[in-house]
Write a structure and sequence with these properties.
Layout (H helix, E strand, L loop, with lengths): L1 H18 L2 H31 L18 E3 L6 E4 L5 E2 L9 H11 L11 H14 L9 H9 L7 H17 L2 H11 L6 E2 L1 H9 L8 H10 L13 H17 L5 H9 L14 H15 L1 H7 L2 E4 L3 H13 L1 H6 L4 E8 L4 E6 L42 H10 L7 E4 L35 E4 H6 L3 H11 L1 H11 L23 H12 L3 E2 L5 E5 L5 E4 L5 E2 L3 H11 L2 H8 L13 E6 L5 E8 L2 E8 L10 H4 L1 H13 L56 H15 L21
Parallel strand pairs: 1-5, 3-4
Antiparallel strand pairs: 1-2, 5-11, 6-7, 6-16, 8-9, 10-13, 11-12, 14-15, 15-16
Length: about 750
C-alpha cells in the first residue's frame, strides 16, 4: 500500500519537472547553489572572526608564561627525585644572531616550503594524507612552522577539530599580519628543546656550551632532531642512538634542498658531537625517566607544565641508593671480567610495586670506549644513559628455564619426573648419533651440551633445573611445547617473544630476547603462587590543590596454578639440590632464609643473569656489555654477588617468611611422572612411557609415532651401552617419514 503511494507521488514529481522548461530548471538549481555558496561564505566569515578576534599581539610570543613544575617523589613523599620542568631557561636573541645552519636544518626538517606558503601548506597536507593512506599509518606530519608556533604559544596539543580549525585560521591571520622572518624569529626563540631549554640560544648553551650563532652544521641538525619529541630524543636519555640517526636524516634533507654540499654532508655526518654534561638534579635517574615517559604519554607535556602535579612513586629510596652503590662497588671486579655494565630491578610481587630500578652501573659516568656514543652503530661497551632494565632486550640464558618447567608441571610432569642427560640430537632429519652438522634440507642439526660437556644419564627435573642442565631442559621444552611455554611466559608478564614461529627448542636456553623488568615481574608470579600484578611505578598523583587525579588500584590476576608455582619455588629454593654444581655456600644461598634463585648465561658469555625471589620480594640482576661483546664469566660469577647483597638487605629487614610446600602427588598419578619405572624394565626414554599430547594418560601403543622418539631412544641406549662397556652399539633407526623440525 505504502509503496503504491510513494510511486504515485514520485511519478507526479517527475512529470512536473518535465512540464517545466529547461531554463527554469537551470535557474532554480543556480539559485539554490548561489544560496548555499553565500551561506558557506557567511559561515566561514563568522568562523574566521570567532577564532581571530583575540589573536595575540607580537609581544605574546616573547613572554614567558608562569609554570608550576611537576615534582616526582619517592614512596614516602619526602625525597624529591626530580622536578620535571623547574625554572624555564630562555634567552631571546635577534634573528641575525642565530646560525644559518640552525635555520636551514629547521626548514629542511620542519617546513621546507615555509617561505612559499601562506601559513598552511595545503600541498604538504595532501602529500601527508596520501602517505598516511598508502602506508596505513599516521607517521606523516604536515604542520608548518607557523602552525607549530601557534600551537606552542597559544593553543595546546589536544587533537580536536576545533583546535585544528583555530590553528589554521590563526596561522593564516598571523602570516597576513607579520613577515616570514618575524614569524621564524619567534619560532626559533620559542620552541622547547628539552632540559627546560626554550629557544635556540638556551638550547645551544645547554647542549653544547656555545651561543646559537656558533653552531656547526652537525650541532644544528642535532638540535633540530630534538624538536618533535625533546624528552624522547634527549642525548641524556635512552634513545641517543635514535637522536643521532634523526640528525643524519636531517643532514640528508639539507643536502637534498641545497643548503649544504656533499663534502659538508659527509663532514657533518662524521663529526663527533660532544654534548655538555647534564646538570639537572635527579635521583634514581633511569627510574625517573621511566616514570616521566609514562606521564608524558598519558598527560602530555603541556598538562604537566601547567598543572604542577605531585607524583608519588613506588620507589624505596633507601633500597635504590643501596642497589646503586652495590653495583658501583662491584665495578672493578666486573670490568676485570670484561663486563662493563650492570642493571638491577627489585619488585614487591604482592603489589607489583617497583622498589628499585638501576638501568646502568652509573647514569652520570662517561660512555666507554670514549666517543662511542657519538656513533649510531651501537659500539659502546658501556652506555650510561641507556636503560637496560626497561628497554634492553637481552637473551636470558638458563634463567628462562623455570617458565618451561612450569608449563611442563601444568601438563602433569613433576619435579621427580626423570629425563635423560645424554648426547641427543633434536633434529629428526639428522643422524641420531649427534655427529651431523646439517640435515638433508640444509637445516642445522641441534645437539646442545651442558656447561661442562658431561652427560649424567637419568636425572630428575629437580636436579636438571637446580644444576641448570641444558639437555633435559630442551627435552622438557619439547614435551611442554614451544608455543605453550611462550604462552606461559606471556601470561606471567613477559611482553616480548611475540613471534612464536621464530623460536625453536633453543628457547629454553635463552634463545629469545626479554627485558630485566619483565623477567623480575614474571618471577614475582612464582613468589605470589600464581598471582600476577604488572609492574607499578606510581602510587598516586595529586594536582596543585592536593586532589588525587590518579591512584594505583591494580588488582592481581590468577595466571598460574598454585601448585605449579609452589613446585617451582620448592625446586629453586632447594640449596642441597644445586650444591653439586654451585657449592653449598654460593651467592644464591642466604643463611637463615629460604630464597628461590636461578642464574642464566648466554652463548659466548654475552649476558650474565641472576633472578630470585622470596614470598615478599623479587630481584633480578643483569651484567654484560651494551654492544653484546662477550664477558669472561657466567651469571653465577657476574650477577649473583650483586643479587646476593641486595636480596640479603631485603630479607634481613623483613620477618622470616618461607614458601609453602606443594601438595603431595594425587592418588593414581602416573608413576612415570613421579620418576618410578616398572621393575625389571630396561632403560628407555620418557617417550617410551608417555604420550606427549596426553602425558597423564595411558602409555602410547606405538612410541615411534612420535618423530622424536627414535632419536631419544637411541641416545639412551647409546649412553647405557657406553657406560656398561658393551661392545655392540645400537643401530640407528631409519629416518621417520615426518617433516623436519624447525631450526632451533
Amino acid at each position: 500500500m505504502y509503496k503504491n503511494y510513494i510511486k504515485k507521488y514520485w511519478t507526479q514529481f517527475i512529470n512536473s519537472l518535465k512540464r517545466r522548461k529547461k531554463s527554469q530548471i537551470f535557474f532554480s538549481i543556480l539559485k539554490y547553489a548561489a544560496f548555499l555558496f553565500l551561506a558557506f561564505c557567511a559561515f566561514c566569515l563568522l568562523l574566521f572572526f570567532y577564532y581571530t578576534y583575540d589573536l595575540p599581539q607580537p609581544e605574546k610570543f616573547t613572554e614567558s608564561p608562569f609554570i608550576q613544575s611537576t615534582k616526582i617523589y619517592d614512596r614516602t613523599g619526602k625525597v624529591l627525585l626530580y622536578d620535571i620542568y623547574g625554572e624555564e631557561k630562555r634567552q631571546i636573541v635577534p634573528f641575525d644572531q642565530i646560525s644559518d645552519n640552525l635555520k636551514h636544518s629547521v626548514l629542511a626538517s620542519e617546513d621546507a616550503r615555509f617561505y612559499q606558503h601562506g601559513g598552511v601548506d595545503f600541498q604538504s597536507i595532501v602529500r601527508s594524507l596520501w602517505a598516511d593512506i598508502t602506508s596505513q599509518s599516521k607517521a606523516q606530519g604536515a604542520s608548518t612552522i607557523t602552525q607549530q608556533l601557534i600551537r606552542s604559544v597559544y593553543l595546546n596539543n589536544q587533537k580536536t577539530l576545533g583546535r585544528k580549525i583555530r590553528e589554521i585560521v590563526l596561522s593564516i591571520e598571523l602570516e597576513r599580519r607579520y613577515s616570514k622572518d618575524q614569524i621564524f624569529d619567534w619560532y626559533l626563540n620559542e620552541i622547547p628543546f628539552g632540559q627546560n631549554a626554550y629557544g635556540a640560544e638556551s638550547a645551544a648553551q645547554t647542549y653544547f656550551n656555545k651561543p646559537a650563532s656558533d653552531l656547526s652544521i652537525a650541532e644544528a641538525a642535532a638540535l633540530t632532531a630534538l624538536i618533535p619529541a625533546p624528552s624522547y630524543y634527549s642525548p641524556y636519555g635512552s634513545h641517543k642512538d635514535l637522536l643521532l640517526a634523526r640528525k643524519d636524516y636531517i643532514l640528508e634533507r639539507m643536502h637534498e634542498l641545497g643548503y649544504i654540499t656533499t663534502d659538508q654532508l659527509n663532514q657533518a655526518k662524521n663529526e663527533t658531537l660532544t654534548f655538555a654534561p647534564d646538570t639537572t638534579p635527579i635521583k634514581a635517574p633511569h627510574f625517573v625517566m621511566y616514570v616521566k615517559q609514562y606521564l608524558e604519554d598519558k598527560y602530555g607535556q603541556d598538562y604537566l607544565q601547567q598543572k604542577g602535579l605531585k607524583v608519588y612513586t613506588s620507589l624505596d629510596w633507601d633500597l635504590q641508593n643501596f642497589a646503586e652503590q652495590t653495583i658501583k662497588d662491584a665495578d672493578k671486579q666486573l670490568t676485570a671480567k670484561n663486563a662493563n655494565n650492570a642493571a638491577l630491578v627489585a619488585i614487591d610481587p604482592t603489589t607489583g610495586e617497583i622498589l628499585a630500578l638501576v638501568g646502568s652501573k652509573d647514569y652520570f659516568a662517561k660512555s666507554y670506549p670514549a666517543g662511542c656514543d657519538a656513533k649510531t652503530n651501537g659500539s659502546c661497551l658501556f652506555d650510561p644513559q641507556y636503560d637496560v632494565a626497561t628497554l634492553g632486550q637481552r637473551q636470558p640464558g638458563s634463567s628462562f628455564k623455570p617458565f618451561v618447567y612450569a608449563t611442563a608441571f601444568k601438563d602433569g610432569y613433576t619435579p621427580s619426573t626423570i629425563l635423560w642427560d645424554t648426547k641427543t640430537e633434536f633434529n629428526t632429519y639428522c643422524s641420531p648419533d649427534a655427529n651431523q652438522t646439517v640435515d638433508q634440507y640444509g637445516l642445522k642439526c641441534y645437539s646442545p651440551q651442558d656447561y661442562d660437556g658431561k652427560y649424567r644419564g637419568p636425572v630428575s627435573i629437580r636436579t636438571a633445573l637446580d644444576e641448570s642442565l641444558n639437555i633435559p631442559a630442551v627435552e622438557a621444552l619439547y614435551l611442554a611445547g614451544v608455543k605453550d611455554s611462550i604462552q606461559t611466559a606471556h601470561d606471567m608478564g613477559i611482553t616480548t617473544l611475540n613471534d612464536p614461529n621464530r623460536y625453536g627448542l633453543s628457547l629454553v636456553l635463552g634463545g629469545g630476547e626479554v627485558t630485566l623488568l619483565d623477567m623480575t615481574s614474571a618471577y614475582g608470579v612464582f613468589a605470589t603462587e600464581g598471582q600476577k600484578i604488572p609492574p607499578v611505578s606510581i602510587l598516586k598523583i595529586e594536582d596543585s590543590n592536593g586532589n588525587i587525579i590518579e591512584q594505583n588500584n591494580t588488582q592481581p590476576t590468577k595466571v598460574l596454578d598454585t601448585q605449579v608455582a609452589r613446585q617451582i619455588s620448592d625446586v629453586l629454593s632447594d640449596n642441597a639440590a644445586r650444591t653439586p654444581i654451585f657449592g653449598a655456600h654460593s651467592p644464591l644461598y642466604i643463611p637463615g632464609y629460604q630464597v628461590a634463585a636461578k642464574t642464566g648465561t648466554t652463548q659466548n658469555f654475552n649476558d650474565g643473569w641472576t633472578m630470585g625471589y622470596t614470598p615478599f620480594a623479587a630481584v633480578g640482576v643483569w651484567v654484560g656489555n651494551n654492544n653484546n661483546n662477550p664477558t669472561k664469566d657466567e651469571g653465577i660469577g657476574l650477577a649473583a654477588p650483586i643479587w646476593n647483597k641486595v636480596m640479603t638487605k631485603l630479607v634481613s629487614e623483613h620477618p622470616v617468611q618461607n614458601f609453602t610446600k606443594p601438595d603431595p602427588p594425587a592418588p593414581g598419578t602416573n608413576p612415570i611422572l613421579l620418576g618410578q619405572f616398572p621393575a625389571g624394565d630396561p632403560p628407555h626414554s620418557i617417550l617410551y612411557y608417555i604420550n606427549k599430547s596426553n602425558p597423564t594418560g595411558p602409555a602410547p601403543q606405538n612410541p615411534a609415532q612420535d618423530a622424536m622418539y627414535p632419536l631419544w631412544e637411541y641416545s639412551v641406549q647409546n649412553f647405557v651401552s657406553t657406560t656398561t662397556s658393551e661392545q655392540q652399539t645400537p643401530v640407528p633407526p631409519a629416518t621417520p617419514p615426518y617433516p623436519p623440525t624447525p631450526t632451533p
